[in-house]
Amino acid sequence: DQVEALIAKKTDLGYKAIINNMYLGLIYQNEIFNPVAVGQKVPAFIKQVREDGKIDVRLQRSGAQHVMTEAERILAKLTDAGGFLPTTDKTAPEEIYATFGISKKSYKKVVGELYKRRLITIEEEGIRLVK
Q: More exposed terminus of the chain, fewer Cβ within 10 Å: N or C?
């Protein structure tokens, strides 16, 4: 479920957040891919409610939902760029993040899915939209 998270405090594990103005949650540092700041409100997604009642939260959708959202973003970037982007599995993670706002791991997963659906071709120099 999508919720609103108010970033409350930096911790050793990540950030404590107030979920929907009612509950305390935790966003783990290894699941934060965009900068966040204390006091910032961000859309978030419930990862799990633990037995102790604490809520684990993530800032991206999980699994297939996340892949579809990112696939749409990559397809839009390809269209805007005239059907070709010079990004490959050899591209630096920082460059992939700067271009698409996602991790290299997510990029590879999404490109693989787009390729499997025959929406793009993978070339030595980059990815190309199938016409």
A: C
